[in-house]
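Incident log, entry 3
Record: Efflux RND transporter periplasmic adaptor subunit (383 residues)
Problem: checksum mismatch between cached and fresh output.
Input:
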Amino acid sequence: MIFYPFILAICCISLFLTACGDAELSTRQSVRPAAPVEVAAIERGLIRELRVFSGALEASASFPVSPKVSGLIEQIYVDIGDTVEQGAVVARLDNAEYKQALAKSQADLLVAQANLMEAESHLKIAQRAMERARVLRDRGVASEAEFDIAQSDLLAAQARLEVLRAQIQGAESAVQSARIQLGYTEVRAMWSGDASTRAVAERYADEGETLNALSPLLRIVDVDPLTGVFFVSEKDYPQLSVGQQVDLETDAYPGEIFTASIQRIAPVFQVSSRQARIEITVPNAELRLKPGMFVRAKVVVREVEQAQIVPDVALVTRSDSKGIFVVGQDGETARWRPVQTGVREGDRIQVIAEDLAGPVIVLGQQLVEDGSPISLVSSDLTE
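Fresh output:
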């Protein structure tokens, strides 16, 4: 029995020490250290949503220059890269055969004209003979048969005259056709539109070769303005409209922006790619851009003025809710603010919420909860 008080004393001491330890642990847990965070300012201003599409430049007009008649190429006056004026002679074919054809048609016309003069003379003779036959018949000197013969000769002379007049028209037409054929041996660059000059893009034949009629000799293009072509998906299609501004970039001129505008939007999507063709007009007065260049087209599809903007790294998700942590008014605690997101531009994003104030935490959010103490390690507020 003398051991019971001793054991009871030991139990009491043990319970006292355990209670003290629990109290100390509870105190340590209630005093959390301040989490180190980095912050940034909440911007207010304009934000734009961009779409970037890959495409290529094409000539706004392109057509082959071909001779309208066949022949041997005697001379070509232009080559790739040369500027061509409207109506200029770009090549010449051997025209000896066509000159000979013109000379023959002119000779045929002279023969037809001579035959016409002879027919006119015969007609006058037939008319006089007819008149004499009428007078002699009326006097009873000539028979009715002789009068009929004179009348028949007159009608034949008139018919021959009409035939020869038609032959004259045919001969004149043949001469005109021969002149046109001879003119076609001078191959000219002709096009419609307001452009007074265009450029030679390709050359398909050389001097000394024989070309058939309508075989391509050169390809002429219009490079001011150019046409840019890119394709868009169903998601981006509703956000584009004719006249919308487009900023172009190309590897040929790093860092330089070329301004263009949407000219045409295809009303259908291609079955194979499920994309629609977009054409843009690209001014090119200095001729620096060339057909075939690869381009990146940037289009502003949405913009919001006076938006609340934060770095996209500030967004976090807690309990399936998107939001940001801002620095409380005391400057020492983090406050959770649920937000909705809007337009994104690069690494900046629009956030929609009422009464957003204070800097936003951009680094260290995983260490804090609503009301957690924080310490500012660094920020861009003082930069």
